[in-house]
Automatic annotation (TrEMBL):
Record's protein name: TAP-C domain-containing protein
TAP-C domain: residues covered: 107-162
PROSITE patterns registered for this protein in UniProt: TAP_C (PS51281)
Keywords linked to the UniProt accession: Leucine-rich repeat, mRNA transport, Nucleus, Repeat, Transport
Organism: Rhamnusium bicolor
Length: 163
């Protein structure tokens, strides 16, 4: 792990990413992600380095519910190709971060309830009520909690009874 701390800081161009699904079964998937990254220079005399990368992951699919575990990976870094240099870091708009993920099954709903419980110190019942009110959207549930808390609409018994 010390090795990772010695690597220079990098910035990836998310618009350069390409993802290939190389192999897929009910138990295993192999994906390859490639793109461009840069190492910012430490001073104005040294130009930043543009590098291409290809990273391959072997994933074990757990329990058939879409949860995965990385069982192997390979990283290849190289000097960026001229075509990559010509097109990378040209788009400056931020990636739309309004993607909302909703719980797909009971296990995910329980994980969200546990997360909300930890963050807010609500008991299990109230954590679940907030999430149900917001269709299990954690961000909306947190905003609802803050709004209710500000106007003192959460009773004392809603907090941390370890229910």
């Amino acid at each position: 792990m010390k090795l990772f701390g010695q690597l220079p800081p990098t910035e990836h161009d998310p618009y350069s990413f390409k993802v290939d699904l190389i192999h897929y079964t009910a138990y295993c998937a192999v994906i390859c992600i490639s793109g461009v990254l840069r190492e910012p220079s430490e001073n104005l005399l040294v130009p930043e380095r543009l590098l291409g990368f290809s990273r391959t992951f072997v994933l074990e699919i757990l329990n058939g519910d879409g949860e995965c575990c990385i069982i192997n990976e390979q990283l290849h870094v190289y000097n960026a190709l001229s075509t990559q240099v010509a097109t990378c870091f040209k788009i400056t708009k931020p990636i739309n971060s309004t993607l909302t993920l909703h719980a797909q099954n009971q296990k995910e709903q329980q994980q969200l309830a546990d997360t909300l419980k930890i963050i807010t110190n609500l008991n299990t019942d109230w954590s679940r009520k907030c999430l149900e009110e917001c269709n299990f959207d954690l961000k909306k549930a947190l905003l609802l909690f803050v709004d209710l808390y500000k106007v003192d609409k959460i009773p004392p018994e809603a907090f941390n009874n370890n229910k």
